[in-house]
């Protein structure tokens, strides 16, 4: 270790308590980083594609998650290594930005790191590698743009959207009924989409799940499903043409925020207070009644007396509804959230064609369906499944499908899947490499090889000979100058992805390449790792 | 350079073959654990809790056994979960679903060892499950039109369900109880309105169904013990001290006499409340909360029967049965709906006094009183009866019925076998394996009964080659018998749920190729 000395010859202490840290420098640091990045990618590699396997994760509390979704796997993994954490971040940002392709991005980054390692061994400076990668990624993204296709869809022609969502769902456990789930996802997105502005607010789509039943029972509800029941067991279970008062104030005597005391010192005061208290409840219920509400949805609880009064006055009510759900109900029914009883007016009431309570199974689980809303811009996807893990995984898969549908609405360019886009980019990058003078040329070529890692993993997971299959497809693409050819994962018999209807979104793919390149660049630039030893 | 450790301390991962092995073994261990409880001759398990008192449960119910286990293996947890869902969804078949999933995985393990990819197995299983379901659909019987026959179907189902439980000695008696109770519900699956009261003492045979409603409470002292044509007010209100609910209110006085005044005012307030209640013209008042001595005395003076501290379920049921509403304010006596019943009286079951409401308006609810030698017997009896009630209430909604005694499994296995023969490719191995897993269920039933399972199942298979066969395993005589004649039936809904969730769970576990276990959260020692 190089030590610095001051003018009196005493060594500087640069890092405090030096002996308790481990420190890696130079090539060693880079190699260590690369190998841990690769280790993470290797975990996800087998999850890629329609024949990818799932991972079973056990949380610190012993809960089990079974999933195929890259972002979820990485998020729940107990990762300690710094570089591995970067990879987790990478997959998470793909998830936030695009929502799909979270596995692919990590596998690609792994491939890039693997190629970089070889270049480093040959003595190429990491910065040069990083720069080469940067150039190559630009070429790849441009190539994607070139091979992308726009396709038209409309409210009447949702088939292309459904096909794309099906591609996403086919790698999940729900692929048994991918068709129906894809349709549900597309319809849900179209219901809330703002086609003018080409934007979709996914928060308006609620994905609710309940164990029991089977996957095929999943349904799309043009309205809201709330996991609550009526506050009083004897209230009506079904309300037609409901006018809904959405309240965020409790049916309880007011609690002023400033500290105060009401002193009772005479019998009269005691009496007045009593009368006052009864009047409170009466007034509250009366106000709701006055504006014509036929259903009260409240964020807070009710006092027993208030509850009875409501029931007595034939005003069904739901209590303890969460804030997010309350907002959704307000959006769906076109009502306003009312924070004070005084502010209740008939205009602020939400309207719904049908509100009903539905019970499930043999336990007393009940849910409240609010349907036929005035403004069907908020929808709920209700998922069923044989066990908790399936329901959770289905919810995640549906979320992915929703994201994909949204991305297409934002930008209707697609590329073909099944590794065909990666192969095409790889060819383009390879061809471009020769034009660059300097060491970067090697890095660009390595980038092309790294792109091959995705179709390679796909072929591997599908039980095909990876190298043979890849080289066959690649030569086919070059020979026929046709970028539809990919890996035939499902053993359909053709590797024309257009025929197989395997699409992915252009922005998703572009983002994958950009994000993976960025992270790899970052990892390559690290040449010193200082970590405290365990204590 | 060796890969650095990526995970935190104590976290570990298992990959590929090892992961698969771990999950297969875990799942099969769970299946083997509950396997011996399957069928009419299945054995029970004793569970001892680690909590205070080391409470002991004796049970035959798969869901109850699995719920109480502390399991570390993630795949085993999947099976526990499907059994729990089966319990919530249809109430019965909680053991079968785990055993079937376990058998499916056992078969899958052999296939994986024979180098067949899990994905191929999954697609084979899916085809087989679909085919098996269709086979069942073809063979179902639906007697919804014929009320008489439908009732006998229900009886059979109830008896089949109960025959594997502790109640099997008196299964006819209990089957009747259960069918009566469920038919009263008139199609609703809300089992809450069937109340089960457990009283130790007597024998299981002494259990009975009461058409009215029994509340496990005592009548206040000095109040009438018997009321005819009762008008009942069901309430949820504070009858101790009616607090002022306005926030921040407190009593602050400067002399003793003031305190006394306010105390009287409070008393006055309570008295008024009681008066208001009396003004409803009731002669029975049931409250969810406590009733203090003072109001109780007032009620006694007015000749009103006051019952305090009825739990929430009790109140809800009572309101449902008597047709009254649960009231919390008493200002408008004219508009509060009162409950009615012909007779309220105190009855004795064993040593305990209970209040019995008979001649109620709505016949929906009823009470089943279970008697038995010990708490363990009663608890198990309640679970068994609950299973039967669940199955029956589901059958009332979906009236399709199948035969039991291993018959449905054989029917499915036959069709699945045929499918296997027709399917080209590696999938056919998986389909064949599925059929083997199905046959394992009658095999286990026979094994548990101490019969020669290999012989019986082979005979059964031969029988099933004939068209319209109704052969199943007759555990009592230990031979292949006609299950239609023996009156062994099962609900289609239960069988379908068993089939689908077992396949789903097996599929899920098969897809896993890596298990990552996080470090268990450190619990602080709070000693």
From TrEMBL, chain A:
Keywords: ATP-binding, Chaperone, Cytoplasm, Nucleotide-binding. GO terms for cellular component: chaperonin-containing T-complex. Coiled coil: none annotated. One of its GO terms (molecular function) is ATP-dependent protein folding chaperone. Signal peptide: none annotated. It is found in: Cytoplasm. PANTHER family: CHAPERONIN. Molecular chaperone; assists the folding of proteins upon ATP hydrolysis. Known to play a role, in vitro, in the folding of actin and tubulin. This is T-complex protein 1 subunit epsilon.
TrEMBL record, chain B:
PROSITE patterns: TCP1_1, TCP1_2, TCP1_3. It is found in: Cytoplasm. Keywords: ATP-binding, Chaperone, Cytoplasm, Nucleotide-binding. GO terms for cellular component: chaperonin-containing T-complex. The keyword Transport does not apply. One of its GO terms (molecular function) is ATP hydrolysis activity. PANTHER family: CHAPERONIN (PTHR11353). Molecular chaperone; assists the folding of proteins upon ATP hydrolysis. Known to play a role, in vitro, in the folding of actin and tubulin. Belongs to the TCP-1 chaperonin family. This is T-complex protein 1 subunit beta.
């Amino acid at each position: 270790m190089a030590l610095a000395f001051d003018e009196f010859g005493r060594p500087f202490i640069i890092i405090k308590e030096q002996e308790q840290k481990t420190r890696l420098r130079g090539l060693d640091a880079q190699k260590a980083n690369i190998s841990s990045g690769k280790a993470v990618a290797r975990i996800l590699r087998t999850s890629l594609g329609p024949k990818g396997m799932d991972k079973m994760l056990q949380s610190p509390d012993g809960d089990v998650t079974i999933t195929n979704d890259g972002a979820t796997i990485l998020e729940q993994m107990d990762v300690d290594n710094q570089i591995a954490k970067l990879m987790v971040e990478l997959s998470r940002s793909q998830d936030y930005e695009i929502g799909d392709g979270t596995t692919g991005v990590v596998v690609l980054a792994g491939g890039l790191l693997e190629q970089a390692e070889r270049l480093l061994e040959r003595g190429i400076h990491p910065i040069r590698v990083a720069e080469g990668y940067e150039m190559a990624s630009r070429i790849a993204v441009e190539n994607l743009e070139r091979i992308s296709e726009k396709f038209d869809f409309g409210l009447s022609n949702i088939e292309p959207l459904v096909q794309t969502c099906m591609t996403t769902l086919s790698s999940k456990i729900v692929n048994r009924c991918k068709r129906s789930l894809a349709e549900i996802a597309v319809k849900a997105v179209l219901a809330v989409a703002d086609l003018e502005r080409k934007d979709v607010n996914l928060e308006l789509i609620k994905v609710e799940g309940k164990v029991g039943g089977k996957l095929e029972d999943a349904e799309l509800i043009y309205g809201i499903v709330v996991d609550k029941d009526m506050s009083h067991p004897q209230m009506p279970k079904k309300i037609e043409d409901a006018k809904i008062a959405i309240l965020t104030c409790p049916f309880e005597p007011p609690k002023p925020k400033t500290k105060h005391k009401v002193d009772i010192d005479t019998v009269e005061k005691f009496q007045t207070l009593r009368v006052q208290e009864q009047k409170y409840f009466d007034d509250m219920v009366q106000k709701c009644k006055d504006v014509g509400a036929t259903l009260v949805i409240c964020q807070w609880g009710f006092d027993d007396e208030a509850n009875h009064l409501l029931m007595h006055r034939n005003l069904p009510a739901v209590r303890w509804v969460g804030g997010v759900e309350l907002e959704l109900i307000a959006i769906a029914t076109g009502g306003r959230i009312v924070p004070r009883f005084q502010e209740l007016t008939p205009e602020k009431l939400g309207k719904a064609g049908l509100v009903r309570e539905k019970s499930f199974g043999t336990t007393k689980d009940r849910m409240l369906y609010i349907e036929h809303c005035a403004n069907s811009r908020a929808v709920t996807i209700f998922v069923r499944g044989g066990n908790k893990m399936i329901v959770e995984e289905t919810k995640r898969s549906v979320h992915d499908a929703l994201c994909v549908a949204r991305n297409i609405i934002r930008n209707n360019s697609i590329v073909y899947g099944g590794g065909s886009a990666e192969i095409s980019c790889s060819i383009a990058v390879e061809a471009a490499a020769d034009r660059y003078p300097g060491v970067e040329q090697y890095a660009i070529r390595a980038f092309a090889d790294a792109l091959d890692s995705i179709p390679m993993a796909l072929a591997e997971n599908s039980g095909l000979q990876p190298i043979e299959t890849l080289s066959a497809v690649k030569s086919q693409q070059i020979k026929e100058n046709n970028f539809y050819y990919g890996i035939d994962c499902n053993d359909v018999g053709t590797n024309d992805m257009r025929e197989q209807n395997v699409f992915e979104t252009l922005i998703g793919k572009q983002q994958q390449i950009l994000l993976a390149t960025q992270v790899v660049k970052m990892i390559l630039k690290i040449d010193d790792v200082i970590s405290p030893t365990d204590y | 350079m060796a890969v650095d450790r990526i995970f935190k301390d104590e976290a570990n991962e298992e990959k590929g073959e090892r992961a698969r092995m771990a999950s297969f073994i875990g799942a099969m261990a769970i299946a083997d654990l509950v396997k011996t409880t399957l069928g009419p001759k299945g054995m029970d398990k004793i569970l001892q809790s680690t909590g205070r008192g080391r409470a002991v449960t004796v049970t035959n119910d798969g869901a109850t056994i699995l719920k109480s286990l502390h399991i570390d293996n993630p795949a085993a947890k999947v099976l526990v979960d499907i059994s729990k869902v089966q319990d919530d969804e249809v109430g019965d078949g909680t053991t079968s679903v785990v055993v079937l999933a376990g058998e499916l995985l056992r078969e899958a393990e052999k296939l994986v060892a024979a180098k067949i990819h899990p994905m191929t197995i999954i697609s084979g299983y899916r085809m087989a499950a679909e085919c098996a379901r269709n086979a069942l659909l073809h063979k179902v019987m639906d007697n919804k039109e014929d009320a008489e026959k439908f009732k006998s179907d229900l009886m059979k189902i109830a008896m089949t369900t109960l025959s594997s439980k502790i109640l099997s000695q008196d299964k006819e008696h209990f089957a009747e109880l259960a069918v009566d109770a469920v038919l009263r519900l008139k199609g609703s699956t809300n089992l809450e309105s069937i109340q089960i009261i457990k009283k130790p003492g007597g024998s299981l045979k002494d259990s009975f169904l009461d058409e009215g409603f029994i509340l496990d409470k005592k009548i206040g002292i000095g109040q009438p013990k018997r009321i005819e044509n009762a008008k009942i007010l069901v309430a949820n209100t504070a009858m101790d001290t009616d607090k002022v609910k306005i926030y921040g209110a407190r009593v602050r006085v400067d002399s003793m006499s003031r305190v006394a005044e306010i105390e009287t005012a409070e008393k006055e307030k309570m008295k008024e409340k009681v008066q208001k209640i009396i003004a409803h013209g009731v002669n029975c008042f049931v409250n969810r909360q406590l009733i203090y001595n003072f109001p109780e005395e007032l009620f006694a003076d007015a000749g009103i029967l006051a019952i305090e501290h009825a739990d929430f379920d009790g109140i809800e049921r009572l309101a449902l049965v008597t047709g009254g509403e649960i009231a919390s304010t008493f200002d408008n006596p004219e508009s509060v709906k009162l409950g009615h019943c012909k007779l309220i009286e105190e009855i004795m079951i064993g040593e305990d006094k209970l209040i019995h409401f008979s001649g109620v308006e709505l016949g929906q609810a009823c009470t089943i009183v279970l008697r038995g030698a010990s708490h363990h017997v009663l608890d198990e009896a309640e679970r068994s009866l609950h299973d039967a009630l669940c199955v029956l209430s589901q059958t009332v909604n979906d009236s399709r019925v199948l035969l039991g005694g291993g018959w449905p499994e054989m029917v499915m296995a036959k069709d699945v076998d045929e499918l296997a023969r027709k399917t080209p490719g590696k999938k056919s191995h998986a389909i064949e394996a599925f059929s083997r897993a199905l046959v394992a269920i009658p095999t286990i039933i026979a094994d548990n009964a101490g019969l020669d399972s290999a012989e019986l199942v082979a005979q059964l298979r031969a029988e099933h080659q004939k068209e319209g066969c109704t052969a199943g395993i007759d555990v009592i005589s230990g031979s292949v018998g006609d299950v239609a004649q023996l009156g062994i039936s099962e609900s289609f809904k239960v069988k379908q749920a068993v089939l689908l969730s077992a396949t789903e769970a097996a599929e899920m576990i098969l897809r896993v190729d890596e298990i990552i276990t996080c470090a268990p959260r450190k619990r602080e020692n709070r000693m």
